[in-house]
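Sync notes, pocket subgroup
Present: LS, DG
LS reminded everyone that the earlier model was apo-only. Rerun requested with 3-thiaglutaryl-CoA included. Inputs:
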Amino acid sequence: MTTAPRTDAVFDLDALLSSDERAWQQRARSFAQERIVPVIERDFENAHFRRELIGELGAGGFLGMHLSGYGCAGAGAVSYGLACLELEAADSGWRTFVSVQGSLAMSAIAKYGSEEQKQQWLPRMAAGDAVGCFALTEPQGGSDPAAMTTTARREGGDWVLDGAKRWIGLASLADVAVVWARVDDPEFGEGGRAVRGFLVPTTTPGFTATPITGKLSMRASVQCDVGLDAVRLPGDAMLPGATGLSGPFGCLNEARYGIVWGAMGAARSCLEAALERSTSREVFGHPIGANQLTQAKLADMFVEVEKGILLALHLGRLKERGALTPAQISVGKLNSVREALAIAHQARTILGGDGITDAFPVMRHAANLESVRTYEGTDEIHQLVLGRALTGLDAF
Ligand code: TGC
């Protein structure tokens, strides 16, 4: 007997959501399926970022959607997570866009910005009329931001920034960059060595952003090398509310939370492709889904998708209560991406040779997830965060 593929056959996850959350999910799903899915294979092949969708995401309320005021939607953490899931079910690059814009750049301004900075940037960013990027990682690596070498020095009333950043999403499209730099002035904290954030309009002389080419992952999105060569900024360009690395880490928490959900979207997409193929492809005279070995693979993939979504939901409910800890986020980020990658690889085996082509989304998801595994804290960083939480011993 053949049946239509079902991923909601065992758990009724909808029953755990409010009507508002289901509506956000449905809107995100419609956007992803109607505007991204039909073009994503071509965009991935051509390494094309479809800039014209930014305004549509803004009009849909998806940019900074978990922030309140300043034109932002004020949605709950679970609604935001569900939107990440649906966008990443289409492509990790588009969930990354929403993460960089909303969870990193807009969050930095909303958490740490002055009232003037919020007024200047947040409404335009929420509408998609302005794009932001978040410049933390440097060329020598992203795992140890404490080793940052980018500097900000005082010259008269101005700030002058020098340094380099790498893997900065959206930088070549951005209107404003949130740049993290080490200051040399005791007045600004930590004996003159504090990491502080600066809002850099990307038209400022000395700011350059060069898209990184040769990527075999995240091809439908943009990551850049950023140069900061004597970038002169007014004295009020600093974000007043963040002193030290807890500033950028506070934003990384937001983005990592979105990944917990998003990676499960990519995983669900891979499972759905494998399920569909398991009933439509016949080998040895019957659908491959009738083979016990195929069913075991499907069951294992399903178990991890459902567990991952339930974990994401649990973390979302904690976040809504203000009780979510960085170690809990590390559990989610580590688990979701690791399992999503395993699911993508397992799904590929069910698709046979066709699984390596763009007739299916699976290889694209697998390639994208390699980036997701590395950014916002590698597997190893999250293991070490958890090792510290468990033992009380710092192994960095
Ligand atoms: P340590 O130097 O001891 O602590 C610095 C301060 O930060 C605080 N902190 C956190 N605060 C909030 N949330 C977190 N998750 C935090 N983690 C640390 C810490 O309490 C301390 O505060 P204070 O007030 O005492 O100064 O750092 P640590 O030993 O706690 O952390 C070490 C480690 C390895 C966990 C941390 O360095 C780390 O998380 N490394 C990974 C960084 C990372 O994720 N990098 C990738 C960034 S991805 C990116 O930049 C690209 S964005 C996407 C795009 O643009 O496309």
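DG: The chain is about 50% helix and 15% strand.
LS: The chain has a mean pLDDT of 96.
Action: DG to write up.
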